[in-house]
Amino acid sequence: MTTLIVSILVLAGGAVGAVIRYVVDGYVKSTAGKSMPWGTLAVNLLGSGALGALHGAGTGTYVEALMGTGLCGALTTFSTFELDTVHLMQDGAYTRAAVNAVGSLLLGFAAFLVLHIIFQQLN
User: Fold this and answer.
1) Helix (H, G, I), strand (E, B), or coil: what is residue 110?
2) Count of Cβ atoms closer than 10 Å to residue 55 Cβ
3) Rounded CA separation 53/122 (Å)
4) What does the entry list as the binding residues for Na(+) (predicted)?
5) Which parts are annotated binding residues?
6) Where in the chain are the domains?
7) In Å, how far are 38, 85, 86, 100 from 96, measured between CA atoms?
8) Which residues are annotated as a binding site for Na(+)?
């Protein structure tokens, strides 16, 4: 029964995370333009920070299934990050591609780590 409950929680979180990703990505693209993949960066940083906070808070299996695996898993996107970087390279925007790749990884790790530490201290 636990596997079924966890699976349903992952499904529910994933549905919400996918919608949030779609809305945030679209909004950021419409306001910041498309010269850089700012929408992908925004959802990845949001998801990384949220996952860091959840892990730092020491939430249990059900919360991690719903919010971590489900919501954050559907909110963030490594494959689109890679595709955006390849598109920048194909367009000859090598500097922007490098900034996107390195910046996304470093900022994502920083968002996770900072919120993990903060929520670990609060716990």
Assistant:
1) helix
2) 16
3) 10
4) 73, 76
5) 73, 76
6) 2-122
7) 11, 8, 11, 6
8) 73, 76
Tens-level pLDDT at each residue, the chain (123 residues) = 699 999 999 999 999 999 999 999 999 999 999 899 999 999 999 999 999 999 999 998 899 999 999 999 999 999 999 999 999 999 999 999 999 999 999 999 999 999 999 999 998
- CA 117/CA 65 separation, integer angstroms: 21
Tokens coding 40:
């992908």
Query: Can you give the pTM of this predicted structure?
Result: 0.92
Alpha-carbon span 37 to 79, nearest angstrom: 13
SS (H, E, C) 35-89: CCCHHHHHHHHHHHHHHHHHHHHCCCHHHHHHHHHHHHHHHCCHHHHHHHHHHHH
Tokens 């500097």 — which residue?
95
